[in-house]
Amino acid sequence: ASSTSSVQDLLGMQEESLPNVKILATGGTIAGSAASNTATTGYTAGAIGVETLIDAVPELTDIATISGEQIANVGSPNIDTDVLLTLAKRVNVLLAQDDTDGIVITHGTDTLEETAFFLHMTVKSDKPVVVVGAMRPATAISADGPMNLYNAVKVAGAEKSVGKGVLVVLNDRIGSARMISKTNTTMLDTFQSEEYGFLGAIAGGEIHYYQEMLRKHTTETPFDVSELTELPQVDILYGYQNMPSYLFEAAAANGADGIVTAGSGNGSLSSIGSEVVKKVIEKGIPVVRASRVGNGIVTETSNGIAADSLNPQKARILLMLALTETDDPEVIEQYFNEF
Ligand SMILES: NC(=O)C[C@H](N)C(=O)O
Question: Which GO terms describe its biological process (predicted)?
Answer without folding.
Answer: asparagine metabolic process
